[in-house]
UniProtKB/TrEMBL annotation:
Domain of life: Bacteria
Lineage: Bacteria, Pseudomonadati, Pseudomonadota, Gammaproteobacteria, Lysobacterales
Name of the protein in question: NAD-dependent epimerase/dehydratase family protein
GO molecular function terms listed in the Swiss-Prot or TrEMBL record: aldehyde dehydrogenase (NAD+) activity
A Pfam short name: NAD_binding_10
Cellular component GO terms held in the UniProt record: cytoplasm
PANTHER family: NAD(P)-BINDING DOMAIN-CONTAINING PROTEIN-RELATED, PROTEIN YEEZ
SUPFAM superfamilies associated with the record: NAD(P)-binding Rossmann-fold domains
Domain NAD(P)-binding: from-to ranges: 11-132
Signal peptide stretch: none
Length: 315
């Protein structure tokens, strides 16, 4: 009898979706992926489904027979969040209830406001300053409600993502330039302020370790992924060591340019609204996660950064 468990990853072409697929395969799961367009160099060992997370029938078709759904899909470039994010999650919840699956959501710090800074626990108040943050709060509320009505849920909140796969994240699109050796690190906040960072392969591995022990989880669980806490000086020093280039300079992110261009680009308008997250120290308290796992799941920062720079064509 085949006892292998099956997981559906929605948004497998994205950074967290891809790393979740890789980690779950490594942990012995049978992995399905729902994407609009499979990659030409798609990960082997995955059963690919072509469909749209906005189409309830597509999600249900891909979810038939699965025990777990990883909801890792996001609109690209911060666009149309208010129109797309909640309907996509509703389709995942409906499919999970229909097939009896647990939902996993990779969470963020966007649903917190300054009243919760600097140390964020699983129970910190959620008073975001942006519409995107309000949507994140509503996503978690809907998952908590779904957990009481037939779809257990797990949320792993993380800091800003980075990793070997170039993607829509602060490190590869803000602090450095893809495809060229790093000359300057453009830090988005005051250089003395620390910020939470999450290495994508570690996030995928942590998700896999948590769901491997699903029997020990409650119907609705939230964990914080601590990752790395680095200020501008520490981030620049890490990149210097990883690139073997001590001459890399610490600079400032050009918020003035974002302000000038924001009226003409929705992505930049949304990016500008998140600036408050760089004006105060933000750290995720991961004591609950470490107590559950029994060990830190974090790659040494220099190894993580070296792999990231190589994947982004910066070495």
């Amino acid at each position: 009898m085949n006892t292998q468990k099956t997981v559906l990853v929605i948004g497998a072409n994205g950074g967290i979706g891809h790393e979740s697929c890789v980690a779950l395969l490594r942990h012995g799961w049978r992995v399905r992926a729902l994407v609009r367009t499979p990659r030409a160099n798609a990960q082997t060992g995955i059963e690919w489904f072509t469909g749209d997370a906005m189409n309830a029938a597509d999600v249900l078709r891909a979810a038939e027979g699965v025990e777990l759904i990883v909801h890792a899909v996001n609109p690209p470039g911060y666009r149309d969040w208010d129109k797309l994010v909640l309907p996509m999650l509703d389709n995942t919840i409906a499919a999970a209830k229909a097939v009896g699956a647990r939902i996993v959501l990779p969470g963020t710090i966007y649903n917190f406001g300054p009243d919760a800074f600097p140390a964020l626990t699983e129970h910190s108040p959620q008073h975001p300053l942006t519409r995107k943050g309000e949507i994140r709060v509503e996503m978690e509320r809907r998952l908590a409600a779904a957990a009481e009505t037939g779809a257990p849920a797990l949320i792993l909140r993380c800091g800003d993502f980075f990793g070997p796969q170039p993607g829509n994240n602060w490190l590869s699109q803000g602090l450095i330039k893809q495809g060229a050796p790093v000359r300057t690190v453009q830090y988005p906040g005051p250089s003395e302020i620390g910020h939470a960072w999450a290495y994508l392969p570690d996030v995928g591995e942590t998700l896999a370790r948590l769901v491997d022990r699903a029997g020990e989880l409650g119907r609705f669980e939230v964990f914080h992924f601590g990752g790395y806490w680095l200020d501008g000086h520490e981030m620049t020093a890490t990149i210097r060591r990883s690139a073997n280039n001590p001459s890399i300079a610490l600079g400032r992110f050009p918020w003035w340019l974002v302000t000038l261009a924001a009226p003409f680009m929705q992505t930049l308008r949304e990016l500008r609204k998140m600036r408050y997250l760089w004006r105060a120290p933000i750290k995720l308290d991961d004591r609950k996660l470490l107590a559950f796992l029994g060990a830190k799941p974090y790659t040494p920062i220099d190894d993580a950064m070296r792999a990231t720079l190589a994947g982004n064509g910066c070495l």
